[in-house]
Structures are given as structure tokens and as C-alpha cells.
Amino acid sequence: MLCWRMRDTLPSLGALRAFALVAETGSLTAAAARLNITQPAVSRRLRELEAELGVALVRRGANALRLTEAGARYAAAIEEGFARIRSATEALEAQQAGPLRVRAYTTWALRWLIPRLSRFSARHAGLQVEVVTSTAAVDFARDPVDAAIRTAPGEAPPAPGATRLQAVLVAPFAAPAAGGRRRSLAGLTLLGSRVRPADWATWFAAQGEAAPAVSPLVFESTTLAIQAAVEGLGAVICSPAFVTAELRRRQLVQLAPRAVPTGDHYWLLLPPTAPRPQALAFQSWLLEEIAAEREPAGRQRRSSIG
Fold first, then answer.
1. Which residues does the UniProt record annotate as the domain HTH lysR-type (predicted)?
2. Is pLDDT above 50 for 296?
3. Helix, strand, or coil (residue 197)
């Protein structure tokens, strides 16, 4: 009975490459030139390969080499293998060299990420960053993104491997001319956001008060609500970090000394398997940025993301 056993080892890559080039060019000299080695070195690799396999791969004539029948079959199989290796290598290199694609909420991207993004770009010069906005849950198997910023209630990770970034803190803000100088919500229209509809209720609950049933003005995003507050339409509830520019320009004033936690946290989500180096670099940078902005323990961070 015939018994066939799979080889535990393979011929050396150098020998296989030398044979493949000899088969392609029909010449030891041409193969040596392609490999940047001497012709005797190619001949030696070829003899060693034949000895290891126990079969003649070429017929050596006075002026040329010809493949044996076994050699022709082996050369075709080897070239197919090398082609697959080349294809896989090119695909891997393209993946590693491609842009970093980040999905985030519009307000977080516009008002927290973009003002800081130059520091990430300076550290990773030449890396293209693509920022896309969406409120939809990310599906890394379907969506062409490397990292996603999400909010979730509590402290339990919303997905395996998710990295907690920061608690979501909110406070009310209004334009000085709209009554913000009084540092009071009295008489101000409460501007709502469809993305975070519960923030006003959370704020009033923290003050021990009942929130109005509805906000008279509701916007698609917190960014729109912030702009409405700047225009004097009322008070917006959001993270202090989202209005640092408006506070600096005195377009808005904070109507309470401290922001309150909403119970939500921001999380960074990466693909559960084999995240790209660009995504890991982004993760490291985000954590450094947030750590650098922390104030001494016990003090409220005005720059907390929310």
C-alpha cells in the first residue's frame, strides 16, 4: 500500500526563487542577474533543490537549459505561489499605507477633534486622515472605517475592546445679550438637540428641579444648537469643551459654575481583530490628549469632552 506523508519542511525560498527565474528566463546567467548573485551560485541552488526533491528539474545542454516535464509542472505551481504572495504583500502594504478613517459625531469632530488634530498630524506627518460623521452604530465588517467614537451609558464597554475616553459632562450656556449676564436660565428658551435629547432633563435633575416637558427649539445636532445660542435664541446645554472658542470670544457665557455628569461616556471603538497601526496610533494620541487636559483631582475639568 502506498503511503504519502506531507513534508514537515519546504525547500529554501532562495532555491525556489532561483529555480523560478531559471524557468522564466531559460538561463542561469539571466537568473543570476535578476537575483544579483553569481551564475555559479544559481547553479548551486538549482542542484541543491534537485537533490532535496530527488528529481531532475532541468536538462542541461551545451548552450541552453530546458525544463523536464516534472520541472515544468513544478515551475508553474511555484509561480502561482509567488503570485499569491506578491498579491497578498501588495494588499497588506496598501492597507498599512492607506489613510486613517475615523467616524465620529459631527459636534465632537468639529468642536473637539479638529481643534486638536494638527498635533496628531504633526506627530504622524504624511498620514492622511479622513473624518466622517454619523450617528449610526459602526459595523467594522461593513463600514470602511478604522476607528469610531461613540457614547454609551454607564461604564461597561459598549463593544469588546472599546476604550473609555471620558465622561460626558454638560452645562448651560447663553449669549450675554440674551440674558447670559444674569448667569440664570430664567426667561431663556431652552435649545434642544435631537442627538442628545435628555441632557436638559439631566441638568435639571442635578439641580433638584423638574425639567420643562419639551424644548421649544430642537436642532438636528448640538453644533446647530450652539450656533442658535450664539445668535441669542436661547440657552444651549453641552460640554464646556465644545464652546471654548465662543467662551474665549465672549459670544457665550456659562450659566453655572460646574458641569454635571450625564452618566454617559465617550468610547473609542476599533476593529475587534487586527486594528491597523494608524488606528492604534490614533488611540494612543487620544488618550494622551485627554490625560494632558485633566485638572488636579477634585476639580471640574472645563475641557471635558461631552
1. 11-68
2. no
3. coil
